[in-house]
TrEMBL record:
One of its GO terms (molecular function) is glutamine-fructose-6-phosphate transaminase (isomerizing) activity. One of its GO terms (biological process) is fructose 6-phosphate metabolic process. It comes from Rhodospira trueperi. Keywords: Aminotransferase, Cytoplasm, Glutamine amidotransferase, Repeat, Transferase. This is Glutamine--fructose-6-phosphate aminotransferase [isomerizing]. It is found in: Cytoplasm. Homodimer.
């Protein structure tokens, strides 16, 4: 059942504190404050490069993973959509690691990419939610997301648990490669263990987000989402979520790209969602908010108390999420963008769990 919620999507959004914790606990050692991956049939820390491959929301988890792995583990990471990857002629470094991310484990393009990578001598690691799936079976190794069954077509808890697994992979590889010291590992894994309770706090903003959805998003024809660094894939995810369930046209953009085109779209009819945790890129994103507002744009800012203080005079709405280590911000900031899409869709009266033209698993091209 829907556990008292109106839709599976709402139930699955609210399950996130629990399933994020479950997924983390499978790899976190609380006494040592270290992350331990299950035994793998290859050494993931010894690979010359990594390729992240997936579709849709899973691909956006992979993009966050790319940013994390490059920054903390110093490994070159390629990122690709499975549907593009499989029809290019991708050049693979022998002995590389290919990571496939999929909730269903049955996505046709992701599976085809996995088969290609096996032929090209890659170690194939699957991050999947369905342990009995084809991708789980055919990969050389699996890191499971423990999200439990996800029924709503819109991916929610699968995404945040994929991020948890990628964060753990990042920490484990960084330690093994000597790019992260013990103190940093303890700090980042400590930040991860706080995510379930911080996520529960985010869920408390549900009513406020519902009001914002109703007032500002339901009437909109186009919505823009902006972010930098690991908030850029979150902007893409926010836009994907909104369009697939509310049928409102939405685009995610790297905030620094605004001046290269999309700022021409801005006027008072276009809400602009800004994902801006306090991190080393915050001031840059803040100047983009300034530019949006100067052109009459309605900025809806997701940040923490410090960021809200800095931007509230500019923004139409500014929501203060709990302050967290920037490393774990993408996991937390996924939640309000899901809530925003959810409430807009409910308000528009669409079929939230089963949006038109979409299937839960895209098993044919
Ligand atoms: O089962 P998968 O994770 O491989 O599915 C990938 C995409 O089809 C999926 O994430 C899709 O983009 C979602 N409906 C987005 O909410």
């Amino acid at each position: 059942g829907k556990g008292g919620h109106r839709h599976f999507m709402a139930k699955e959004i609210f399950e996130q504190p629990q399933v994020i914790g479950d997924t983390l606990n499978a790899m976190f050692n609380p006494t040592e404050r270290t992350i331990t991956l299950p035994p793998l049939p290859f050494d993931p820390a010894a690979v010359p490069r990594i390729t992240m491959i997936a579709c849709g929301t899973a691909s956006l988890a992979g993009m966050v993973g790319k940013y994390w792995l490059e920054q903390h583990a110093g490994i070159p990471v390629d990122w690709d959509l499975a549907s593009e990857f499989r029809y290019r002629a991708p050049v693979m470094t022998e002995g590389g690691l290919a990571v496939f991310i999929s909730q269903s484990g049955e996505t046709a393009d992701t599976l085809a990419a996995l088969r290609y990578c096996k032929q090209k001598g890659q170690h194939c690691l699957a991050i999947v939610n369905s342990p009995e799936s084809t991708i789980a079976r055919e990969a050389h190794a699996v890191l499971p997301t423990l999200a439990g069954p996800e029924i709503g077509v819109a991916s929610t808890k699968a995404f945040t648990t994929q991020l948890v697994v990628l964060a753990c992979l990042t920490i484990a590889l960084a330690r093994a490669r000597g790019t992260m010291d013990r103190a940093t590992e303890a700090r980042l894994s400590g930040a991860l263990t706080e995510v379930p309770s911080r996520a529960a706090e985010v869920l408390n903003h549900d009513e406020r987000i519902r009001e914002i959805a109703q007032e500002t998003f339901t009437p909109a024809r186009d919505v823009l989402y902006l972010g930098r660094g690991t908030s850029y894939p979150l902007a893409l995810e926010g836009a994907l979520k909104l369009k697939e369930i509310s049928y409102i046209h939405a685009e995610g953009y790297a905030a620094g790209e605004m001046k290269h085109g999309p700022i021409a779209l801005i006027d008072e009819t276009v809400p602009v969602v800004v994902i801006a945790p306090s991190d080393e890129l915050f001031e840059k994103t803040a100047s983009n908010v300034q530019e949006v507002v100067a052109r009459g744009g309605k900025a809806v800012v997701f940040s923490d108390a410090a960021g809200v203080e800095r931007l509230k005079h500019l923004a139409l709405e500014a929501i203060a999420l709990p302050a967290v280590d920037p490393f774990v911000a993408p996991i937390l900031y996924a939640i309000p963008v899901q809530q925003l899409a959810y409430h807009t869709a409910v308000d528009k009266g669409t079929d939230v769990d089963q949006p038109r033209n979409l299937a839960k698993a895209v098993t044919v091209e």
